């Protein structure tokens, strides 16, 4: 009798402990797939009454549509295999919002080793998920900043190297032309000496914004190469099309109408452009191709600047 009384008391203590924690305990009978118990804390968290949790259908239906299929399939597979597991998902509240839940599940077996029940705890991890998302957003922002030129806001040399490698491999694999424009502002040192570095920085920003507008397709890539040099990478673009884009870049410079009284070629700011097109083969190297286009830019300067020369 004393043992029975002690067992009853223990059961009451355990129930009180379970129902006083923030974790929400529950139990599902495996054969019927019905809840045999769920903690009253569930109503405070999600708004659904304890009585409304009858079968696993309620559990599945009160899950975000994007999470439902994968989480249900995972939990069923793990449970059938008798493996304890955890699952994160968004649970629907009675007022139509979603709360992030982590279900920690333990599989109970009978004496024959068959699955008898599932018992577990639901934890509200909304705050943790929000913090994780903020960290992910911050990481993405920092990554974007690391690939962005601090002055002009266009992609930097680091991003160029990454994109160039990807486009080079794509062009080689599909045997498609890849064109490169290397652009240099004419007599920019003299511009800085004449107008000052603050105005020089503003000039670089204007030039970057104008020239980047010539990259009209989604894969056209414009970046600051360094100093007063900019580049444009043009996938699936042959030489004749690339020349038209180079000419478009010079027209955009003219539209800016930036005065440059110390230039030796014009009273307005101009650019020289080196251009190259290649269908990469396995023996070709990016560094050699860039060197060829650089040489074309050098020839454009040698021939009087404010012009386009092809490699």
TrEMBL record:
Question: Top enzyme class of this protein?
Answer: transferase
CDD domains per UniProt? GGDEF (cd01949), PAS (cd00130)
Domain GGDEF: where? Answer: 176-311
Q: Which PROSITE patterns match?
A: GGDEF, PAC, PAS
UniProt domain PAS: residue ranges: 10-71
Q: Which residues form the PAC domain?
A: 85-137
Q: Tell me which domain of life the UniProt entry assigns to the organism this sequence originates from.
A: Bacteria
EC numbers listed for it are 2.7.7.65
The catalytic activity, as recorded, is:
2 GTP = 3',3'-c-di-GMP + 2 diphosphate
UniProt-recorded name of the protein: diguanylate cyclase
| Taxonomic classification | Bacteria, Pseudomonadati, Pseudomonadota, Gammaproteobacteria, Thiotrichales
């Amino acid at each position: 009798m004393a043992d029975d009384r002690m067992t009853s008391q223990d059961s009451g203590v355990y129930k009180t402990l379970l129902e006083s924690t923030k974790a929400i305990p529950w139990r599902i009978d495996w054969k019927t797939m019905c809840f045999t118990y769920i903690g009253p804390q569930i109503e405070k968290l999600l708004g659904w009454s304890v009585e409304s949790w009858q079968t696993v259908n309620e559990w599945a239906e009160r899950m975000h549509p994007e999470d439902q299929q994968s989480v249900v399939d995972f939990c069923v597979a793990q449970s059938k295999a008798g493996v304890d597991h955890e699952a994160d998902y968004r649970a629907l509240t009675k007022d139509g919002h979603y709360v992030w839940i982590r279900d920690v599940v333990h599989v109970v077996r009978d004496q024959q080793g068959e699955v008898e029940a599932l018992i577990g705890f639901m934890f509200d991890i909304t705050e943790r998920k929000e913090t994780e998302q903020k960290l992910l957003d911050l990481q993405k922002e920092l990554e974007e900043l690391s690939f962005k030129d601090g002055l002009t806001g266009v992609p930097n040399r680091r991003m160029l190297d990454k994109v160039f490698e990807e486009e080079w491999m794509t062009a080689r694999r599909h045997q498609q032309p890849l064109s490169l424009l290397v652009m240099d502002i004419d007599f920019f040192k003299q511009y800085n000496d004449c107008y000052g570095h603050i105005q020089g920085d503003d000039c670089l920003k204007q030039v970057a914004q104008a020239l980047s507008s010539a990259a009209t397709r989604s894969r056209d890539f414009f970046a600051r190469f360094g100093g007063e040099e900019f580049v444009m990478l043009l996938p699936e673009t042959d030489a004749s099309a690339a020349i038209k884009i180079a000419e478009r870049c010079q027209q955009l410079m003219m539209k800016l109408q930036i005065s440059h009284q110390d230039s030796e070629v014009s009273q307005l700011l101009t650019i020289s452009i080196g251009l190259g097109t290649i269908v990469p083969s396995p023996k070709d190297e990016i560094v050699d191709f860039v060197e060829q286009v650089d040489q074309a830019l050098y020839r454009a300067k040698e021939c009087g600047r404010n012009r386009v020369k092809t490699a």
